[in-house]
Write a structure and sequence with these properties.
Largest sheet: 5 strands, mixed
Radius of gyration: 16 Å
Helix content: 25-40%
Number of helices: 5
Order of helices and strands: HHEEHEEEHH
Strand order of the largest sheet: 1-2-5-4-3
Strand content: 15-25%
Shape: globular
Distance between the termini: 37 Å
Structural class: alpha+beta
């Protein structure tokens, strides 16, 4: 999702930051990396719900992709609603101390991608979501898990 002139920030994910912090301080009460990823997902889902996003779907992509651990797909009712949902989510992520997410598509607000590193969020207008139908692609079972007859 990177256009010409942008730079790739290698190692700037929530997981990397948490590992670096863990090297400095021991994790309190045995709370590990999965708890922090779960916290990020909870913040994303709560923000989407607060913004009245519609048809929120959370997909666990751990082990299926190196893009992240979770993908969340939601809809806004209009261009303006999609932009407002994305703005609210970005603020919630920053306020929670999870850094500044990468962002694509806010200027058109048909499909906004918000990448926190471990949680990837897609906010669509309903027509655009129906056309791309990305959640169906990610919810399909792996061929390795299926027995072909």
């Amino acid at each position: 999702m990177c256009r010409a002139g942008c730079s790739v920030r290698k190692g700037k994910t929530l997981r990397t930051a948490l590992r670096k912090k863990a090297d400095i301080q021991p994790s309190p009460a045995g709370i590990g990396e999965n708890a922090d990823i779960s916290r990020a997902l909870d913040i994303v889902l709560a923000s989407l719900d607060d913004s009245k996003a519609e048809n929120i779907v959370s997909i666990d992509i751990q082990g299926r992709s190196s893009l992240g651990d979770y993908m969340v797909v939601a809809s806004g009712r209009s261009h303006r609603h999609v932009a407002a949902v994305a703005d609210h989510l970005i603020k919630a992520i920053k306020d929670a101390g999870l850094g500044t997410p990468r962002l694509e598509g806010l200027s058109n607000a048909d499909w906004v991608l918000i990448d926190t590193g471990d949680v990837i969020v897609h906010v669509f207008r309903p027509e655009v979501r129906e056309f791309y139908n990305i959640e169906k692609m990610w919810q399909m079972p792996d061929l390795d898990d299926e027995t072909l007859h």
